[in-house]
Amino acid sequence: MEAQSATTDGADPLDGDARLEPFFGPAWPAVKGFHDLLIDQGELRGLVGPREFSRLWERHLLNSAAVVPFLPTEGRIIDLGSGAGLPGVVVAAMVPTAEVVLLEPMERRTDWLSEVAETLRLDNVVVRRGRAQDEHGNLVGDAVTVRAVAALDKLYRWAIPLLGQGGTLVALKGSKAEDEIEAAKHVGRKLGAGVASVVDAPTIEGVEVTRVVRVVREAVPGVR
C-alpha cells in the first residue's frame, strides 16, 4: 500500500481512520484530545504551520508515537526542545508510568505545554522552561527524546549530558541519519556515547516509516 498523501482540499486523509484508536490503545483519548487542541490552537499560537494540518496524524502524531517502543516504561524521559509537545505529549500519553519532562526554552511554548498537560490530565508530565545546556548537572534522565532540533553533532552536546549512565538518546531523524552519525561520532565518544544505530520504526500501514537514531550513554566521563 502506498503512503498516504495530503488531500488537495487541506483535509487530513487519516482523520476518522479506524486504525488510529487501536494503534494508540489506552492513550487514544489523550492523543485525540491533543490532536484537537493542535487543530484549534496550533496555528493561532504559532505552533503548527497551516500546511501541516493536512498531515497532522502522519507527520506529527504517528511520527511521535514511533519512538515509544525504544523508550523505558519507568524512570524519567526528557523531551528536549519540546515545542508544541512533539513527541513529548504523545510519549507521556503512551507511557503513563514514566515521568516525562517537557524541556522548552520559550515561555509561550511552556505556557502551551502546561495547558495541554492540564487539559489532558497528563499527571506524569513536568513542564520545565530552559535550555538543555543550562540543565547539565541539574537534570538527568533515563532517556532523551528529540525531534527536528539540530544535527546530531550539535544535538549530542546538548542531549547526552542529560543522560545518566545507560541512558538512551532516541532521536527522530530523516534520510541523512547515517551521515549525521558519522559526523557526530567523535563528539559522542568524548561524551561517553556508544555506537549509534538507525532503526526503522513503522506505525500503521500506508504511513511512511519513521527513522529513529538510538545511542546509549555507556559512560559518564569523570565518573567511575
Molecular structure report:
- With 224 residues, this protein is α/β, with parallel strands linked by helices.
- 33% of the residues lie in helices and 21% in strands.
- The protein has helices spanning 20-24, 28-41, 56-65, 88-94, 107-119, 132-135, 152-159, 177-190, and strands spanning 76-80, 99-104, 125-129, 141-147, 163-173, 197-201, 210-216.
- It has a seven-stranded mixed sheet, with helices on both faces.
- β4, α7 (152-159) and β5 (163-173) form a beta-alpha-beta unit.
Helix content: 25-40%
**Amino- and carboxy-terminal Cα gap:** 51 Å
Helical segment tally?
Answer: 8
Structural class: alpha/beta
Widest β-sheet, arrangement of strands: 3-2-1-4-5-7-6
Number of strands: 7
What integer is the average pLDDT? Answer: 92
> How much of the polypeptide forms β-strand, as a percent range?
15-25%
Task: Kindly provide the radius of gyration, computed on alpha-carbon positions and rounded to a whole number of angstroms.
Answer: 17 Å
Can you tell me the residue ranges where pLDDT is under 50 for at least 5 consecutive residues? Answer: 1-8
Order of helices and strands: HHHEHEHEHEHEHEE
Largest sheet: 7 strands, mixed
- Using the alpha-carbon principal axes, give the shape: globular
